[in-house]
Amino acid sequence: MTAVIEVEHLRKTYGTTVAVADASFQVREGEIFGLLGPNGAGKTTTIECLQNLRQPDAGHLRVLGLDPQTEAVTLRRRIGCQLQESALPDRIRVWEALDLFASIVPDSPDWQILMEQWGLTDKRRASFSSLSGGQRQRLFVALALVNNPEVVFLDEMTTGLDPAGRRVAWELVRAIRERGTTVLLVTHFMDEAEQLCDRVAVVDNGKIIALDSPRGLIATHTSDIRVIFSTDVADLSWLEDIPQVHRVDRHGPRIEVEGSGPVLALVAATLVEHGITPTDLRTEQPTLEDVFLRLTGHGVHD
Q: Could you say which architecture CATH assigns to the domain 223-285?
């Protein structure tokens, strides 16, 4: 599949601070590619270099075959972006912003459709300063799509959205991809990356420490399944005798058993043998958060 974004050995520093150490990756045409990591990991700096908003210190960059540093004007006609730190004049109205952006783009799609898709119709006459954080985010994403881009950069696009708003945004990102647009998504939300991305680059301290599909990362870097149930029985030491059980933790009445293979069936059978039949017995599969913790030794919010 054709690579529409190519990054080779990107490095960017601010004085003595290394924002991006040595990043290399490719984004394939038509995929949703995620840069996943905590704030300060170098994700935003990377996409800013790809859009010629910052000058890299070293590295080879191409977007749609164009050099962002020398062909920026041509590139900007073909990409869209929603940046983490974006702003508009306080008094501009929602419809005015969309109309203004559309007016400078030849053959732009109907901005009123974008306004409706991103849940802004009721706010069409609202000033930018009166919008909530989530409403501002939705407006910036709509503006990023005004020129019908081939590649769109979305930087922490669901920050400030409530859970329902995040789900709506996820569906719209999928719709963007379905029409053939390549999406580079920057996020620190593990569930967002796991739900949306075809492939994910895990970023920490300016370095890409892993890259694969979410399922591939989970399969490679985690193996244990958690079996969870509740009981007031004090002594459960016999659970540790099950060969597939690796660890048993207790948090009050809540029991967490980590293991591999058919551990659920074996734990359930052993519980029944000991006269315990918990009604809340269930499993939790490993997630991207487990991968991140294993790779970095810290959480995304630490």
A: 2-Layer Sandwich (3.30)
